[in-house]
Amino acid sequence: xxxxxxxxxxxxxxxxxxxxxxxxxxxxxxxxxxxxxxxxxxxxxxxxxxxxxxxxxxxxxxxxxxxxxxxxxxxxxxxxxxxxxxxxxxxxxxxxxxxxxxxx
Length: 104
Hints:
There is one protein chain. By secondary structure, the chain is mainly α. It has two domains: about 1-35; about 45-104, Membrane-bound Lytic Murein Transglycosylase D, Chain A (Roll), CATH 3.10.350.10. It contains four helices and two strands; from the N terminus they run H-H-E-H-H-E. It has helices spanning about 5-35, 40-55, 70-75, 80-85, and strands at about 60, 100. It has a two-stranded antiparallel ribbon. It is rod-shaped, with a radius of gyration of 27 Å.
């Protein structure tokens, strides 16, 4: 026994598939762009940019427990490469709490 499917059922299934793909693409796009609150996201991004450009005036930084070179660079605004060049004796993988790093 062969079952016959109508042309209308085939068309409806294709339309449903296309609609599902459109929904998935829209959800993925909004998740990637973070467009849940468009204006707020833009202002937050601007604030982060301004914060990154703000460089500390301190000449040294005392390493705290749990600090990483990346975290110190973000906190102080001094690039990692510059911290490393100013402190060649410091192993960036093993920062010791209480150690003082030159920033200028």
